Amino acid sequence: MSLAEIRARVARAEAAAGRAPGSVTLIAVSKLQPPDRVEAVLREGHRVFGENRVQEAAGKWPAWAEAWSGLELHLLGPLQTNKARQAMELFSTLHSLDRPKLARTLARLAQERGHCPALFVQVNTGAEPQKAGVLPDDADAFIADARALDLPLVGVMCIPPADEDPLPHFRTLRGIGERNGLDGLSMGMSGDFEAAIAEGATHVRVGSAIFGARAY
Ligand SMILES: *Cc1c(COP(=O)(O)O)cnc(C)c1O
Predict the structure, then answer these.
(1) Burial label, 28 (beta-carbon count in 10 A; 0-12, 13-18, 19+)
(2) What pLDDT score does 1 carry?
(3) How confident is the model at residue 215, as a pLDDT?
(4) How many Å is the Cα radius of gyration of the chain?
(5) CA–CA gap between residue 153 and residue 147 (Å, rounded)
(6) Domains of the chain: total
(7) 29, 96, 158: residue to mutate for ligand 1 pocket, most atoms within 8 A of CB
């Protein structure tokens, strides 16, 4: 696979869904990828990247941000409150707002800094015990509480269970976004981003299909 090929597939899926060209943001998920692969994608002109861990991102992105202008970094993985300040400095968008304590911490830091990254509320659509995210039934109340804290919510995000058809999960997420007036839908990964675009995804998070397998 390659960046060009994935971009073309995103464009075809947008067209097939009757959506405007460029209406889907392709987040290249660079976690655990060798630097030369990430640099190749930077050289091809891509500027929107996703990382799972604050620590890993802090170790590699500040240098790239000096060398390449216009970078936009998204945090996709769980965020501990003690890393919230660092995350707010590194990332333009956080996709894993998932609990009241984190919402309160982000709100306090946002007041202090006068600025907050854009936020997606993560929803655990499969109600998997090991997975982060608010349960679908709790999402409306959680979103209302986060809004009451003046947090800049832009959308909702999900990671469907690995062994299930993702479609019902994409639909659940879209319903939660629609009834809460949140336009952003962060859903779809290497194996299912076209299906996610057909269901309305605005942000797809694609790692291995762009970069190849990760080095764990
Ligand atoms: C790793 C990861 C991705 C990318 O997964 P691929 O299958 O490599 O595309 C997307 N979203 C999240 C939250 C991830 O952790």
Answers:
(1) buried
(2) 60
(3) 78
(4) 17
(5) 7
(6) 1
(7) 29
Instruction: Assess if residue 46 is contained within a domain.
Output: yes
Give domain status of residue 94, yes or no: yes
Rounded distance from Cα 202 to ligand 1 centre (Å):
16
How far away, in angstroms, is 29 Cα from ligand 1 center? 6
The pLDDT score that the predictor gives to residue 103 is 98
Q: Domain for residue 50, yes or no?
A: yes
Of all protein residues, the one whose alpha carbon is nearest to atom 7 of ligand 1 is 190
Which structure tokens are listed for 54?
Answer: 């604050």
DSSP string, 72-117: EEEE-S---GGGHHHHHHH-SEEEEE-SHHHHHHHHHHHHHHT---
Q: Domain with 206 in it: what CATH number?
A: 3.20.20.10
What's the token pair of residue 193? 């981003």
Q: Is the pTM of this model over 0.90?
A: yes
Print the domain residue range for 120.
3-211
pLDDT given at position 216: 72
What is the full DSSP assignment across 105-148?
HHHHHHHHHT---EEEEEB-TT--TTS-SB-HHHHHHHHHHHHH
Mean pLDDT by 10 residues, the chain (216 residues): 93 98 98 96 98 98 96 98 98 98 98 97 98 98 98 98 97 98 98 98 98 87
Residue whose pair of structure tokens reads 């949140």 in the numeric block: 182
Contacts of 165 (CB under 8 A, 6+ apart): none
Kindly report the backbone phi and psi dihedral angles of residue 147, in degrees, each rounded to the nearest multiple of 5, phi listed first: -65, -40
Q: Does 216 reside within a domain?
A: no
